[in-house]
Structures are given as structure tokens and as C-alpha cells.
Amino acid sequence: MLVSILVYLCCGAVAGVLAGLLGVGGGIVIVPMLVAVFPSQGIPAEYVQQLALGTSLASIMITSISSSRAHHKRGAVHWDIFRNITPGILLGTFVGGLVATHMPTLFLKVFFICFLGFVSLQMLSSYRPPASREMPGPLGTAGVGGIIGLVSSFVGIGGGTLSVPFMSFCNVPLHHAVGTSAAIGFPIAVAGTLGYIVGGWNTPGLPAGCLGFVNLTAFLGIAVASFMTAPLGARLSHSLPTARLKKGFAVFLIIVALRMLLGLF
Known about the structure:
The chain crosses the membrane at residues 7-35, 47-69, 81-100, 106-127, 139-157, 177-198, 210-228, 248-264. The chain is mostly helical.
């Protein structure tokens, strides 16, 4: 148990820095680590992926608060975008979380691996859609939010890998897109967590300490560490060459994806 708690703390520390530094959902790191640790905790194999996703989203609630506060102090959060996108985010993520709890574990793992590949290629290519338009109106922004929320619930992330490119495409400066994405991670995390709790309620075979598909011990360990390190990531994002760091992180994600793929066999 002690080893697992230390793993949760380390996982949260890394996730917090990444959330503030790169504008990517810390779940990209949290989910694979939980998938690796949970089987040793006696969690049935058919529930490992759902628990990892639900727990990841729960922890992102804390990471997002800490990270977005740090970005807000630097004037990098567009609260008007946050207000317009949140209704779609809440609906898409909650529905996605409910649906994911009834999906086969194999499908969720394959979806996550494919998503890691997508994120890795995006980072390695440094491709960003040209900033050729303005943000859509409230209805259009909410619609995009629904899509971002749905995908985020399937992979247990705060949505930064999708919301940052979207805002950059709409002429939002990169640092502001990262800061606003950190704030958007909160409604994603809240709605997704509720979806996984409701969908996993009274599921037979889950160990003690689980609230639906959220492991409370893992949540607390990750949340405590990520809350402390997210402001550090936010500060570093304004001073370090994040483009180079993203390429290194992309290579790491490819390795993680390959290991998860081999684990399917």
C-alpha cells in the first residue's frame, strides 16, 4: 500500500507540472500509471481502465484549480471563452463518462492508445491549424465543447490536447490558450467524474475505497501532489522552450503507447 501511495504522489507531481507547462491533460500520464498499478491492488481486470479514467478525471479537478489560478494571475485566462464553452463541456463529458462505464475495457484501451498516437504525432509535427478565424459565437463554442468533453471522458484528460489547438486556430495567443485550457479542465473533470461515479455505482467486484469508478486513495494522492506542482508548471510555461519539451514528451508518449499495445497481447 505504501508503494502505491508513493506512486500516486509521483504521478500527481508529474501530472501537475505537465498540466501547467504544456497545456496537455495530466491524464495522459495518470491513466497509464494507474493501469499499471491497479492490478496489484486486487482490482478486477475488466474494471481497471474505467477506474483509471474516472480517477484521473477526479484528480484533474484539483490540478485544474491550481493551474488555472496561476495562469489567471498572469492574465492568461479568457473567462469569456470559458463561459461559452462550459455548457457543452458539461453535457459532453457527463454523457461520455456514463457511456464509457458500460463499454468493454478492450475498446477503451485501444481508444486510449490511438489517442496517445494522435497526441504524439501532433507534438512531433508541431502542427497547428492556421489562426484564420475568430472564436465562434456561444452556441458554436458550446458545440465544440461538447465534442472536446466527449473525447476527454474516454481518455481521462482535461482536454488541453484538443482545446489548445482549437483556440489557437481561433486566434487566441498560445499562452492564453494554455491558460484558458487549464480553466476548462475543471468542468471537464467535474462532469466526467460524476459520469464515472454514477455509471459505476454499485458495480459488483470493486474493492473498498472506490466511489463508483473513482479510487479515492489514488485520487487523494494524485490530487495533493498535483495541486502543489501545477503552479510550477504554469510559471515554467512562460520561460522554458515548450516546443522542444513537447517533442521529448511526444517520444515518451510513443513508448507508453507501445507498451500498452504490447500489454493487450
